[in-house]
Amino acid sequence: MPIEGPYGCKLAAELGLEGIQLELGSYEKNFPLSKKSVQEAYLEAAEKYNISYPSIAVRITDDYSITDSKESKSRKIIMEAVEKGIDTAKAMNIPVVMIPTFEKSEIKTDSDFQKVVEVFKTICDYGLAKGITIAAENALSVAETQQLFERVGRPNLQLYFDTQNYYLNKGYETPKMIKDLIPLFCNQLHVKDGKDKDLSGALLGEGDTDFYASIKELKKHHYAGWYMIENYYNQKPLSTLHDDPVEILKKDVGILKEAIKNH
Questions:
Q1: Going residue by residue through the chain (263 aa), what tens digit of pLDDT does each one get?
Q2: Which helix (H) or strand (E) holds 33?
Q3: Residues of the domain holding 147
Q4: Same domain flag for 65 and 116
Q5: SS3 label, residue 19
Q6: In the chain, how many domains are there?
Q7: CATH of the domain at 154
Q8: What is the value of pTM for the model shown?
Q9: Among 74, 102, 157, 176, which residue has the fewest nearby CB atoms (within 10 Å)?
């Protein structure tokens, strides 16, 4: 969002959006969303502007490795963050906590994979006790994703799909993955686009991820959940399209709504 914080609800409502994915915040700032006063501010804004919060993202895994040893500082920080994220979701009546495994937490080896399985078992058990779904976001292949779910073996583990990550990170054809993975989807996914390996760097449908084919495939399989836009309107190259990032976001909202309606 071009405007951070609870006021973002006003902007979202004015743009015809219905929800916002929240973020727990960083370890260095002591996980702002976990604080009661911050939660109350967001809940007040949501009620005022009729905005939903479908999920909370715990993105600390970008900066600390989930694949470090159990005794490491990194793993302890991640587990603290995830527990606070789940507690926050419970307190705010938000059904899903998303855990990505990119950057510092990218799964590169069999050992990494096994550690991620172990961590997600613990995370899912903690979430299950509080009625929270844990949504894994990654760039694994179809077979690897299915193996992850089989080995974790928890009923509250679901997949947070993304229309660019698979192509961006591995060169996979995103539309072809939807048929096999859609049974694992949580009731929401990310839509974004980019050219030449730019993360979230192009208007929807103007990148090289075959965005419209993904929308067509989603509709073919009767997907009716949340489409959460995740383009970076305040960063280059997208920010060069207009001096005001709100105008760029407004254009993408129109593109998404038209795509869902007509493809």
A1: 888 899 999 999 999 999 999 999 999 999 999 999 999 999 999 999 999 999 999 999 999 999 999 999 999 999 999 999 999 999 999 999 999 999 999 999 999 999 999 999 999 999 999 999 999 999 999 999 999 999 999 999 999 999 999 999 999 999 999 999 999 999 999 999 999 989 999 999 999 999 999 999 999 999 999 999 999 999 999 999 999 999 999 999 999 999 999 98
A2: none
A3: 1-162
A4: yes
A5: strand
A6: 2
A7: 3.20.20.150
A8: 0.97
A9: 176
